[in-house]
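Example for tutorial group B:
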């Protein structure tokens, strides 16, 4: 993999959507509902969100317009380059100058933490997908910051407990060296300790790293039963390919992807990924409705949607429905509607925002199929089991979210 390059992408680009003028446009600031998609548009995390999240947002607007054609909606998008300062600068300008009402996606924990405080101070809504750190829904939770997809607890609690119960009681971690990776290791180690299992160590690599040889050798030397990868995107793809190159795929250690997206499997190839397990909030092949969205998305993006992209669709559509129901894009009024309205779409059925602003829904433990078991392109997962929302989410009694203290008073 070539070294990660810095990209001059501060410019905000517009994704025009032709919509009819709304007769009561005065109800909306600037006469339009303006939504910003900010994420990694061309770097190591771009396949799982990136331009595909913009496609998903456009499809949500299209479906909203089918029901309510007279409300004007505009989608803007920008690349934060996985840099918190750039992400913060972009979002601050969107809110202060460009009249953006809501920001969605983000897809990088360090950037998300920077944006969270800005949105809180500006009283603006931000809806996160593919943001792993538990801080966003924990100590740094905010009335205006909503978690739509997952956090690291969702991703590791069920899978780690399941593997420990099967005798995989010693772990070593290879993790991304930023907020997401470090938080995922911390959460995993807490779950291991609860199950009286051991963490034998962790090594952290920079974002966009290309050579994992020394990290893999440390993992091998640890003699841990499990080598867990707390990274994603190009990083996971590269380290798994090198896992095979080092011959570790025929050893006794079990590789576990604590976060893996469909596009990661596609990039590394099923022969490399076969047998890998991960937890996901959504998969395009779950049922007829998800497959229909997958085919619709594929026609525009030439790839099946990932869970973060499906979450962006759902979040944007729900925000638009709430705004229409409120008759305004004023933040407090929209938030009131969003908390009152269940999410009922192909992404989640009957899901609601709980007091810590997490959308509570089921998850799935999935395993990558063997090449000979593939029936159609992108048909990469077998669903091993469903993890109920009750089991997937940290109990509110254990949450450190300050909002819970406010609601209790």
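The residue assignment follows.
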């Amino acid at each position: 993999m070539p070294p990660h390059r810095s990209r001059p992408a501060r410019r905000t680009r517009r994704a025009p959507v032709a919509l009819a003028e709304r007769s009561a446009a005065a109800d909306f600031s600037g006469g339009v509902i303006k939504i910003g998609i900010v994420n990694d548009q061309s770097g190591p995390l771009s396949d799982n969100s990136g331009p595909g999240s913009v496609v998903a947002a456009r499809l949500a607007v299209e479906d909203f317009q089918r029901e309510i054609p007279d409300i004007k909606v505009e989608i803007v998008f920008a690349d934060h380059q996985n840099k918190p300062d750039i992400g913060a600068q972009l979002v601050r300008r969107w809110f202060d100058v460009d009249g953006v009402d809501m920001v969605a996606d983000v897809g990088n924990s360090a950037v998300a933490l920077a944006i969270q405080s800005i949105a809180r101070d500006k009283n603006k809504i931000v809806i996160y997908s593919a943001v792993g750190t538990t801080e966003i829904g924990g100590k740094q939770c905010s009335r205006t910051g909503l978690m739509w997809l997952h956090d690291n607890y969702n991703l590791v609690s069920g899978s780690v407990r399941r593997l420990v119960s099967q005798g995989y009681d010693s772990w070593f971690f290879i993790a991304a060296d930023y907020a997401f990776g470090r938080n995922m290791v911390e959460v995993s180690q807490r779950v291991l300790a609860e199950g009286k299992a051991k963490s034998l160590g962790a090594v952290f690599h920079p974002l966009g790293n290309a050579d994992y040889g020394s990290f893999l050798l440390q993992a091998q030397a640890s003699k841990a039963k499990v080598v867990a990868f707390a990274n994603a995107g190009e990083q996971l793809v590269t380290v798994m390919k090198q896992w095979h190159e080092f011959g570790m795929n025929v050893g006794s250690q079990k590789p576990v992807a604590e976060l893996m997206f469909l596009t990661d499997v596609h990039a590394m190839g099923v022969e490399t990924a076969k047998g890998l397990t991960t937890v996901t909030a959504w998969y395009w092949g779950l049922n007829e409705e998800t497959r229909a969205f997958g085919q619709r998305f594929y026609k525009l993006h030439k790839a099946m949607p990932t869970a973060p992209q499906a979450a962006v669709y759902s979040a944007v559509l729900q925000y638009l429905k709430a705004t229409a129901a409120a008759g305004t894009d004023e933040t407090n009024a929209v938030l009131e509607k969003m908390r009152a309205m269940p999410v009922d779409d192909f992404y989640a059925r009957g899901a609601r925002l709980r007091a810590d602003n997490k959308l509570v829904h089921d998850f799935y433990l999935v395993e990558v199929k063997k090449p000979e078991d593939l029936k159609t392109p992108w048909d990469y997962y077998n669903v091993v089991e469903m993890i109920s929302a009750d089991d997937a989410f940290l109990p509110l009694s254990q949450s450190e979210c300050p909002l819970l203290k406010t609601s209790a008073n």
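The two ends are 53 Å apart (CA to CA). Compare this with the pattern of hydrophobic and polar residues in the output above.
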